[in-house]
Amino acid sequence: MSSLNKVTLIGRLTRDTEEAGGGSVVKFSVATSESWKDKKGEKQEKTEYHRIVTFGKLAEICGKYLRKGSQVYIEGRLQTSSWEKDGVTKYFTDIIASEMKMLGSKAESSNVVPEKLPETNREAEVPF
After folding, report:
1. Tens place of pLDDT for every residue, the chain, 128 residues?
2. What CA–CA distances, in Å, run from 16 to 11, 62, 63, 74, 118?
């Protein structure tokens, strides 16, 4: 029996991207929100924050063109890691992105974006 580990998000960056590994790794956070009306008819909203990690060419593109507030489509997979501090194990889950598409109008972007970004490789190798 096969399994599937796939995540698809549309949201906005909560801060500018962060480079690691000499720019071969770029990390950022994306917020997604959902809203609904409760039993009293009042609007409710919940926001989730997602840690995104990109590698290689995709990392270069994200580092160059994404800024706080950018709206993006992200496709990738979940990866959970842990560390221990003061005898307590802490866990966090990252989304390892395999695809990114910039959404929204050019007017919303603080940078000049080329007409067409280079294609990203869906099957890019992730180093772990």
Report:
1. 789 999 999 999 999 999 987 779 999 999 999 999 999 999 999 999 999 999 999 999 999 999 999 999 999 999 999 999 999 999 999 999 999 999 976 545 444 343 344 444 444 444 43
2. 14, 10, 9, 16, 21
Q: What is the pTM of this model?
A: 0.75
| 7-33+46-105: CATH number | 2.40.50.140
Q: Where do the domains of the chain lie?
A: 7-33+46-105
